[in-house]
Input
Amino acid sequence: MKKRKKASLTLEAAMILPVYMAALLALVSLLLMNLTAMRIQADLLNMSEELAVSLADGCHISVGQIEDRLKDMLTDEDLKFIDKGKDGIDMSGSVIREGEYINLHLSCDLVPLTGFFGILRVPFSRGCLTHIWCGYEKPYFPDEEIVYITNDSEVYHRDRECSHIRLTVRATSPDEVTYLRNRSGGRYRPCSLCHSRLSDGRLYVAVEGDRYHNTLTCSGLKRTVRAVRISQVTDRRPCSRCGR
Output
């Protein structure tokens, strides 16, 4: 009788132990997959911050080059948990709008170490939206003056609210714009960027500008302002309004 009980317990243990070990291995794999997902997200964030600075300096890069650089950042340990390794990473949904923002998007399938016969795949998707670097904040360099510049100007400004860089935009009509005058007393002419015409209906002008526009999104109505250290603007002269 005792021998039968021992044999029964041994048989039960032999049946339960593989199931227990498989469940334990699955749990460990899921935890490691989660760590891999966290590292991928950190790499995506670091890549976005790096691009924000390099694109502000005038560099150009394609989405394909970004994908290749991110793949090189991943370790062999992380690639074990990505289905098809580097070939399983897709960043085609990423968008780079020069002068404005970087929207990186990565998707892939994560798999456990065992693979579970190719059945278990966990879809993984992460995005990161970052604005292009537009200058330092004042406390960043407390011992040096921070001034403000635009990409298309030869002067620097000490006041962020200077009217030369902070535009005042108003809506107007074709009839009104013909006799409207800007702050300097000059007339408004059609914008060559948005191809505005007097027949466009509602128009938009900047009090400091000399063009009228048919849309508020025209780049002629925007100013890309960067805060930089004064030692970086040796080739620019001070603004006649706020630079004294």
Observations:
- The chain has two domains: 2-131, 138-238.
- Residues 138-238 form one domain.
